[in-house]
Write a structure and sequence with these properties.
Number of strands: 4
Largest sheet: 4 strands, mixed
Distance between the termini: 34 Å
Oligomer: single chain
Number of helices: 26
Order of helices and strands: HHHEHEHEEHHHHHHHHHHHHHHHHHHHHH
Length: about 700
């Protein structure tokens, strides 16, 4: 299909249409401003505003004086400690022992006219004072906020401030630092008075912290966390202006039908639209890289001595390699939404959820505990966010970055292919009258709606894991396995009036299948253990995360039969009904057997929300789906699923951790492959033809 599309691309009508679309885009000032000018100017404007605000903050800091008052019986002690602490800090700073220790603190000035505690607190509420130092005598009971032992018979200096006022908070910090320094000076003087003149360096010399990271590396790690979030924002905002106008808007204006009657091939039309939105996305991505290089890398704006990015030509090239597939992916999604929409208002309703979901994945850059060399590299958008963060921090891992680029490119190619295929449907392009499925309803609409249902299931599972009533092991089992993955499919069967026997492949297989399942399941457990171990070496996950996952999956306070029921029996029933039953049948009717196998496996893997087992779960999903379609029966997949999870529980509970050698892994894979081949050979050709039946064939 891509070869045909590429040949169509250079034909005169399709290319001429793209040129015409570009000219029309450039002639519209509002579209040019929203899609091209705004993403170009916003980031430089933010850099300049940040530079100006830093200058203003430094000027305010230099001129700022914090007013404080001392009240209480021990005012002389408090003033003495403040004076001694200020002198000690100034001496240490002048000797360069602590560079810039007081640079971020305001200068302190005592309000001599306020001596009573009540007046001082009133002045603090009125912002006439920034902080009040209440000097209390020995024996005063301490408060919980004082963080001291109230039984000590020593004076208590309580710092009173307003936490909702930045000036008051910084003044309280300045007072506390000076008091602690003054207390340390008085302690040294007390030791010298009794003849213990022992410098602290004679006990141990503690030097200042020495940061091996450069300013550029620290700045890159900080800025890189949200860099892709900003890029995704502009890709969606800028691309949506063009995407909404190019299909949804033309439907609304009625101009798309005229274009279709001009003799232009539908594929050329759709490809030209995809190319237009993609070019806008590529322009936005290129502009963001240039902005970063010009304004930060070359320091065209002064962002302070503590902020600098070192963007080499190689790093800039890696940025483009990561961002270009991201731009293509988002452009395809936007055009797909536009093609699915009946008008601009409908586009806005569909656009917002996709925008929020993509932003959530782009926020993965803030998950600093997850490295790029982990299962996260397999998650589109999120892998780019983490990759850009690592790249700007100066950590160029060529293998991980290349893997990220490949995964993103595959996702982008899949999105473009899906968009071209779906927008080839005249009903989607023109918004024409409802087709047979719309009129028939019921089972005819089921293949269209099945993915929406499972997207809703995923949201329920995700939100349920964060809610207190379902946070326990039993709550998760009840929510996921009983309510969502069993109750949800049964609800779909009833609402769409589906044939249970056909939708759930509810028929017994041939007897020859069962020995292959009984032998193949243990072999696959060994094979998947070897694969998981190998992936753990290539893309390591934190040990703490794996340990936490295992503890949550296999609680120590439950009996073995309860664990087997929750981890092996219930999933074998409910998950197979959900994923190899309802979902697989819905995808098969609409997209065919191959897409149904892969698509149901992807959903199956994502729903499990286990990054370090994402690939094994996906492969098992493909295997179970293929066996179900081949045998036309759900029972073999159920039995294999039951044996797989049951063996996992038994091994984990026994404490046995199998270490699979290369030879053992090869033998396990060969045995598993032989069992699958036996199932294939023992299945009649008619079953295969039924499994690949036309998606439009629906039994009543």
């Amino acid at each position: 299909m891509f070869a045909d599309a590429s040949r169509s691309w250079w034909r005169a009508p399709g290319f001429a249409l793209l040129i015409a679309e570009l000219r029309q885009l450039l002639r519209d000032p509002r579209t040019v401003f929203a899609a091209l000018v705004l993403p170009t100017l916003v980031v430089p404007a933010l850099f300049w505003i940040q530079s100006w605000s830093l200058e203003q903050a430094e000027e305010r800091l230099e001129a700022r004086v914090a007013r404080y008052a001392v009240a209480g019986p021990e005012t002389e002690l408090a003033r003495a400690l403040l004076a001694a602490g200020t002198e000690r800090l100034e001496q240490r700073a002048s000797n360069e022992e602590v560079s810039g220790v007081d640079a971020s603190m305001p200068r302190l000035e005592e309000a001599q006219d306020v001596t009573a505690l009540g007046d001082a607190l009133a002045a603090l509420d009125d912002a006439a004072l920034d902080v009040v130092l209440n000097a209390l005598p020995a024996g005063t009971p301490g408060l919980e906020d004082d963080d001291i032992d109230s039984a000590l018979e020593v004076p208590l200096l309580r710092i009173v401030y307003r936490g909702d006022d930045e000036a008051s908070s910084s003044a309280a910090s300045a007072v506390r630092i000076r008091l602690e320094a003054g207390r340390a000076a008085r302690r040294v003087a007390a030791l010298e008075a009794v003849g213990l003149d022992l410098p602290l360096t004679d006990i141990v010399a503690v030097g200042e912290r020495h940061d091996l990271a450069t300013v550029a590396e620290r700045s890159g790690a900080l800025y890189g966390r949200g860099a892709v979030l900003v890029v995704v924002f502009f890709l969606f905002v800028g691309g949506s202006v063009v995407a909404a106008d190019t299909l949804a808007g033309e439907k609304e204006r009625g101009t798309l039908e005229s274009l279709l009657t001009s003799g232009l091939e539908r594929r050329q039309l759709v490809l030209a639209k995809v190319a237009l939105v993609t070019l806008v996305g590529l322009f936005i991505a290129l502009v963001q890289v240039l902005n970063l290089w010009l304004y930060v890398g070359l320091r065209l704006v002064d962002l302070g001595d503590d902020f600098a990015l070192r963007l080499t030509p190689g790093a800039a090239l890696w940025l483009l390699v990561l961002l270009v597939p991201l731009a293509v992916l988002i452009a395809a999604v936007l055009l797909w939404i536009s093609g699915r929409s009946t008008g601009t208002k409908d586009f806005q309703l569909r656009f917002f959820p996709a925008f929020l979901i993509t932003l959530a994945f782009a926020a993965a850059g803030f998950l600093t505990a997850l490295p790029l060399r982990s299962a996260l590299v397999l998650v589109p958008v999120a892998n780019v966010a983490v990759g850009v963060r690592e790249l700007l921090a100066g950590r160029i891992d060529a293998l991980a970055l290349a893997a990220t680029a490949v995964v993103s490119s595959v996702a982008a190619a899949f999105a473009v292919r899906a968009t071209l295929r779906d927008l080839g449907d005249e009903r989607l392009v023109t918004g024409a009258a409802r087709d047979h499925a719309d009129h028939a309803g019921g089972a005819a609409l089921f293949p269209r709606h099945v993915l929406r249902w499972y997207a809703g299931f995923w949201v329920v599972v995700f939100l349920g894991s964060t809610m207190a009533p379902f946070a326990s092991f039993g709550g998760q089992v009840a929510l996921n396995l009983v309510l969502v993955f069993l109750g949800g499919p049964l609800l779909i069967l009833r609402l769409y009036r589906l044939d249970v026997r056909q939708t759930l492949f509810w028929r017994p297989p041939r007897a020859a299948v069962w020995p292959a399942v009984a032998l193949g399941a243990p072999a696959m457990v060994v094979a998947m253990s070897a694969l998981t171990e190998w992936l753990g070496r290539l893309l390591p996950m934190p040990d703490a995360m794996i340990e936490m996952f295992t503890r949550s999956l296999l609680p120590d306070d439950l009996a073995l039969w309860q664990i087997l029921l929750a981890i092996a029996v219930l999933p074998a029933i409910s998950e197979e009904i959900a994923f190899r039953g309802v979902l697989l049948d819905g995808l098969r009717r609409r997209h065919g057997a191959f897409v149904a196998c892969v698509g149901s496996a992807v959903v199956f893997a994502l729903v499990h929300v286990s990054l370090f087992r994402l690939v094994p779960t996906f492969l098992l999903g493909v295997l179970f789906a293929a066996i179900t379609l081949r045998t036309r029966s759900l029972w073999p997949a159920m039995a294999w699923h039951l044996l797989n999870n049951g063996l996992f529980v038994m091994l984990a509970r026994s404490g046995f951790e199998p270490t699979v050698s290369v030879a053992g892994a090869v033998v396990a894979w060969l045995v598993a492959a032989a069992c699958v081949a036996w199932i294939w050979r023992s299945t009649s050709r008619r079953s295969v033809q039924d499994a690949q039946a036309s998606p439009d064939r629906i039994s009543r």
